[in-house]
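ARCHIVE CARD
CATEGORY: sequence design from structure
SOURCE FIELD: tokenized fold
FIELD CONTENT:
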């Protein structure tokens, strides 16, 4: 069982199938540290994933670790152990699909095979389509069709199986950057956060989710990004009418994954190619402006608070993400991909599809049907979503002495 971004034991079709397919024989739980991919994760994400892997090993009793190109690692394991059946959760990102194609070819050459079962999404990307078979480019009709698509109920924990404990590389170790505080990682911690959110904040989610100063969001984006929880688990506990705002936020995650599935180039390029003609500021002054934005030194309190929260927690409130992104693109006239890369450097929940398309939504080059010239006013946004200034004072200590908004 090759774990990737599915670091859990509940509602895990690939793990369940691996144990069933083994028919009593031991299953080797495997994680591959890919030299090209591991460094691409920012330091906070590497630290969080390392902790999540340690938690997964504790749950399974073992976790074999190898370092290298997956095709070479798995072909090498097949030569060591004999022909293998390698179970995985299906990949949907452009890089993941290519990687799995290479792995499947390498395994076939050794008399082995790769079996993909399940998805990291409630409805696999590429499934929901218009009546004419084409993909959706606007969220609302996608969301309506996604809700009607149907999905299997969440599965329970994988039934106990014998896990093979084979000597390998040590678990990756990664400390978070100095001064950054990360939440506990792992499936059990994620399930606890979800239970507390349901009990304490779900009923007020519709009214509080945009308030940066209130604990109105679930912060489960980390658990969803690394598969410590499956979205089916969350959806099964929600009422589609009563909890429609939370369901819609899960729908946005699935929509952006679907857009990337159909438009692989949109991970780094404008979804709307007409924006390729847009010019941006460049040169030393632009670089200095970018550095001030990234370090929370713009002089606009809500923007600076958001960027400092990012560097303090590896996470930023979603409303503030939109405000800081708008400030970089619309006020500083810098390209969205510079900000997207900065977010991926610091975000623990940095998801390739959601991050890239969230930035493009703000820039106007993506799926948003509103005019590209819409701007999030950082002052008005602060007055509306941090009305007493508590969020700003929390992350911008030089303003902590100021009262009120």
């Amino acid at each position: 069982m090759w774990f990737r971004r599915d670091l859990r034991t509940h509602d895990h079709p690939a793990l369940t199938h691996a144990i069933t397919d083994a028919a009593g024989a031991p299953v080797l739980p495997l994680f591959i540290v890919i030299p090209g991919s591991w460094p691409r994760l920012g330091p906070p994400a590497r630290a969080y994933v390392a902790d999540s892997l340690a938690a997964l090993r504790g749950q399974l009793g073992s976790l074999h670790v190898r370092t290298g190109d997956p095709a070479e690692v798995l072909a090498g394991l097949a030569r060591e152990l004999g022909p293998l059946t390698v179970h995985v959760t299906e990949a949907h990102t452009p890089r993941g699909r290519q990687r799995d194609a290479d792995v499947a070819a390498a395994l076939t050459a050794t008399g082995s095979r790769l079996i993909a079962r399940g998805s990291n999404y409630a409805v696999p990307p590429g499934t929901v389509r218009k009546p004419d078979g084409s993909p959706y480019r606007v969220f609302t009709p996608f969301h309506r069709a996604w809700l009607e698509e149907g999905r299997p109920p969440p599965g329970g924990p994988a039934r106990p199986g014998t896990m093979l404990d084979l000597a390998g590389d040590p678990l990756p170790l990664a400390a978070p950057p100095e001064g950054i505080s990360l939440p506990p990682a792992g499936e059990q911690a994620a399930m606890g956060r979800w239970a507390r959110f349901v009990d304490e904040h779900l009923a007020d989610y519709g009214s509080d989710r945009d308030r940066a100063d209130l604990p109105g969001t679930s912060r489960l984006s980390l658990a969803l990004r690394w598969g410590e929880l499956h979205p089916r688990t969350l959806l099964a506990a929600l009422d589609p009418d009563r909890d429609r705002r939370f369901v819609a936020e899960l729908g946005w995650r699935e929509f952006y994954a679907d857009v990337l599935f159909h438009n692989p180039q949109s991970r780094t390029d404008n979804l709307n190619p007409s924006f390729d003609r847009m010019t941006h500021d460049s040169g030393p002054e632009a670089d200095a402006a970018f550095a001030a934005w990234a370090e929370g030194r713009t002089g606009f309190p809500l923007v600076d608070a958001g960027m400092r929260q990012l560097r303090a927690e590896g996470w930023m409130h979603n409303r503030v993400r939109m405000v800081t992104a708008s400030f970089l693109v619309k006020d500083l006239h810098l390209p969205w991909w510079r900000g997207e890369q900065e977010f991926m450097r610091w975000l623990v929940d940095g998801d390739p599809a959601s991050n890239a398309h969230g930035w493009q939504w703000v820039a106007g080059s993506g799926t948003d049907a509103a005019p590209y010239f819409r701007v999030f006013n950082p002052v008005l946004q602060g007055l509306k979503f941090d009305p007493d200034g508590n969020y700003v004072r929390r992350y911008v200590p030089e303003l902590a002495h100021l009262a009120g908004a």
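CARD ANNOTATION: The CA atoms of residues 46 and 174 lie 6 Å apart. The first strand starts at residue 2 and ends at 3.
SHELF: design records, drawer C
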